[in-house]
Amino acid sequence: MAAEVNKILLIGYGNPARADDGLGPAVAESIGLKNLPGITVEADYQLTIEDSAQVAEHDVVIFADASVNCSEPFSFEPLTAKEGGSFSSHSVEPAEVMALAENLFKSKVKGFMLAVRGYEFDKFDAPLSEKAKQNLEKALLFLGNLLKTKNFNNLQKIISCS
User: Fold this and answer.
1) Residue 18 gets which letter from DSSP?
2) Rounded average pLDDT over 46-58
């Protein structure tokens, strides 16, 4: 029997002032505007250890970030909690945030990574590139449908090529 998903956390992270690095926050902003029931949306420049407390309060967490090497236009895949060898309190990887949630708060959260392909990361005070905007639209269509159905059972790595 599939576990019921009532509370979903979406964390979009990256620097919106560095062109395509802002794809994660752009995902968060767009999904947040939909006001979907049971969906909590956060955006930040980077993940921190403090995020683990909020992650632990949810059934599912989706981390959204820009990627320089994922397939176009985006990839979506399950995450497994993984303790890091070392981390700073200023930046933590998604799998490490999940491990902290498990170890500190006995969380059983299911995690997923949405990576949206970006191209320009070295420009400051620059908007998303046109190709990144196209990839963002496709990722938002996929994610919007997933969040409406809340069917996270048996999800494998998904690479959208449409």
Assistant:
1) B
2) 95
